[in-house]
Amino acid sequence: MAAVGMERDELLSMLLVFLDKVLQAQARLYTFWHNLMRERQQEDNLILPAITLVPLPPPQTRSHWMKVRSKDWWEMVVLLEFSNDEWKQNFRMTRLSFMKLCALMESHMAPEDVTVRAPVPLIMRVAVVLYKLGSCAEYRVVANQFVIIRSSVKKFFYMFCKGMVQGPIKQLIRTPTEAAAEEIARRFKQSHHIPQIMGLINGTHISILPPSDGYKDFVNHKGWPSYIIQAVVDDQFCCKMPGSAHDAIALRHSDLFQRAHLLPKVRKHLFFSFCLMEQPKMYAYTNLLIVGDPAYSLLDWLIKGYSNSPRLTPEQESFNTYLNSVRVGVEMTFGLLKSRWKVLLKRSHFLFTFMPTMIATCCALHNFFQKERDHASSSWLVEARDRTVHFPHSDNVRYVCA
Questions:
Q1: Predicted local confidence at residue 300, as pLDDT
Q2: Cα–Cα distance measured from residue 205 to residue 388, given in angstroms and rounded to the nearest whole number
Q3: Which of 144, 162, 246, 256 is nearest to 200 (CA)?
């Protein structure tokens, strides 16, 4: 027991010695730190008077990370107070159609999840694009209206058009099925008394800003640069097949001409009146026809009227009258298209290589609204007609209500 007690006393004395050395080291460290800070303070006191004698540089204006702006027009007026008429006047459609369009474009326009600050919501992005298409305002004007930066307006516009061409346009603009084509032909026959008509074809010019190199290649017969919209429409003014000089030349270079063998045909029952015996039913497929103006060539799937001549028979003149009454539909379609989207009424500042994408987007949106029965306002048609009178950059267009 005595030995154990001695070992314990030795350990305790060693621990006390160790603690004493630790305290001495802390004291020396504190003294060193205190002296160092005092020396630095003395140095600062010597340097400060010299610094005060040196003139300070002028203050610099710092750029803002984000300016404080008010979005009351969009958040408080448009979303909460706009009536259907006001919504249609500003965004060229009703609120219900707008929401359906947002759902259609969500996969292409939705903001990313990871952002530094709150992103522009989907419905505002779509509204920016529609406001731009419907008013043809500059990026600066649209940006000020929605209180965003100009680069965002351009970004949303290109994102919308490219997304539309990559996805929804395939459902909105396509060749009708055989059953749909037969139904179109039935409606044409009922309204205009001409059988086997499945569509109407024509073209119209859209003014563009051409490149300086090759400018003459874009100048049309009226003397100003343009692209040709060539489209086939049905009796409900929907674009069925897109195209994109002379109308006949444009047709020859279009996808429609290259894929004409894929056009729907109708099955007809063949019967022979001279057969006295009962025969099994026989069927044959015959082409449904597309109606064009005299500029087009006559094809086995494209029909046009007789050329004007004093030698026309009464039957031929009557045929021309009926056919012309049908052909008015495609001119009305172009009028509806341009009256809704003013961006097509004037020379656009878009790059000429992007113009076909923008034009195709307008045609797809036109079909979307026709299917939603969201028709153009009569005031738009009057405004477009007046603008065409002063700035004749359109032809083959009728601005009348459907």
A1: 85
A2: 12
A3: 256
